[in-house]
Amino acid sequence: MDPALLLLVPTRSYRTGDFVAAARLLGVPVIVGSDLCHSVEERFGAHEGEVSLDFRHPARAAERVASLASERPIGGVVPTDEGTAIIAALVAARLGLAHNAPDATRRAGNKHLQREALRAAGLPVPPFSLHALADGPEAAAAAVSYPCVLKPLVLSASRGVIRADDPAAFVAAWHRIEAIVAAARSERRPSDEEAARSLLVEGFVPGPEVALEGLLRGGQLEVLAFFDKPDPLDGPFFEETLYVTPSRHPAAAQEEVARLVARSAEALGLVEGPLHAELRLGPAGPVVLEVAARSIGGLCARTLRFGAGVTLEEVIVAHAMRRPLASLKRERRAAGVMMLPIPCGGVLRGVNGLEAARAVPGVEDVVITVPEGRQVAPLPEGDAYLGFAFARAERPEEVEAALRAAHARLDIDIRPALPTVV
Length: 422
What we know:
By secondary structure, this protein is α+β, with helices and mostly antiparallel strands. It is built from 13 helices and 21 strands. It has helices spanning 16-25, 37-44, 58-69, 82-95, 102-109, 111-120, 138-143, 167-184, 193-196, 251-268, 312-320, 354-358, 396-408, and strands spanning 4-9, 30-34, 49-52, 74-79, 128-132, 148-152, 162-164, 198-203, 209-217, 220-229, 242-245, 273-282, 285-292, 305-306, 310-311, 334-340, 346-352, 363-368, 375-376, 387-393, 411-415. A hairpin with a 3-residue loop joins strand 14 (305-306) and strand 15. Helix 3 (58-69) crosses helix 4 (82-95) and helix 4 (82-95) runs antiparallel to helix 5.
């Protein structure tokens, strides 16, 4: 019996279908590990198997997988977010597979622990301090320097990240983040009560933001793509929209970013698997914002093609299963994605103009991932995008222009939610 790939996906993950398709192309059997497996089967069809896991308790989930592996061999594990990265590390350690140490994935998944590890290694990070939410904001607001950025420790996709330029804005942001963290506790995430009780405050670093997509193999970083983020991310919220590759920044800046990311992975103890890093090109040089033990989120991986059209998911699956990897050189043409922002809160009634947006030269597709009738919220409370637009062209500036033109053709109908009748 051929070993199977264990794919760890939260129920609301956008990427299950793309990973399952990649595994099928490679002839790899798939077992989907999810917190609500029945919904995975309904969306993507039956696989060789599904296993229901308690994502709030990673050790318990790993024990469940180890029991399963005694009957069905598992040859590789692929996580799709920070929470499942911890479970993947525990599973791989139990099964004797190449893996990141569980402590390394915990450091990478906790903003404060990551900052401490990178600073201790002499790497450039924003100035930061940790504060207990129970202490209240007033003393911290008087002690920090401005402008600053307040961040919950474990939420992703810029959820709950707010800039403050003065003490009054600091206090307001603090209370807003308290409410966001309280709401997130009801979600099925790995439990980290200590992290949920604390808040990170860091100095705001001006300058453009960039992202690096990489693959670690035995501790060596292979750069897969370098993304520019053309929209300024200056706050008060930090909603990411555009990712475009190849970068238009000087080669020397890109080389310095790659060097810092490789050193950051080493400082965190990450040695194996996909890696996604975010940095600011500050006045004094690149500053590390995040290094995650996972690949790029959402459907953004669809921008990347390697060799003869290999997808990023195929690269990740092949690496996990120790299959030979073809050329990892990205295709020659420029590519990009726009994560379609949610403009206001309410109930999504529909998105008009899709065909007009798809007709923009260079645009490959526009995908709406939020179903009609669902209540939506923008950042910092929201945790999802409306959808994704993809484009390819000869030059990065042409990709950026195509994505902006496609977005301008969309008419997003969001209406206030009706009051509940008691």
